[in-house]
Amino acid sequence: GWRVRVQSLRRRREHEECVQLLRSVPILKMQLPKSDISLLAAELRRRTYPPGGTLIKQGEMQEDFFLVASGEASVCISGEECATLTQGDWWGDTSFIRKSPSTATVQVSGDEALVAFVLSRQKFTELGLHKRLRLPRRNAIVCGRGE
To answer: What is 45-142's CATH topology?
Structure first.
């Protein structure tokens, strides 16, 4: 019935929003063909985190790759704020791929919710992204490590 159509339209709109976001991230645009971006968008799930909400705590196992759609998040290592994530920024790639604990706490900052598109480690691997994507190390995020 009509509920199925509404859900289908909502999912299609979310997919298009996700494709546009992925195409706006230079590293993804350069490394993935358009067909892969569409496949990736189909697997990402939209999550909303409230102001002050925590995406991951330092020391927790990283199970998801996050791509910020809107809002802001602070990245803190040992209580020191190292970076701010905004639209098009990602988190989770290093500890996620290496299956190691998160090196930082990532928490929503500001008065607005953070909307992120999230991909599980399993889907990331199934899509072969661990072999095809070379995500650069970001200096802002390695603060506090003497690098």
So the answer is: Jelly Rolls (2.60.120)
**The pTM is what?**
0.80
Unique residue bearing structure tokens 């925590």: 54
Give one DSSP letter per residue of 9-51, joined into a string. HHHHHHHHHHHHHHHHSHHHHHHS-HHHHHHHHHH-EEEEE-T
Q: Which residues of 15-48 are buried (b: 16+ CB within 10 A; e: fewer)?
A: eebbbebbeebeebeeebeeebbbebbebbeeee
Q: How confident is the model at residue 125 (pLDDT cuts 50, 70, 90)?
A: confident
pLDDT score recorded for residue 139? 45
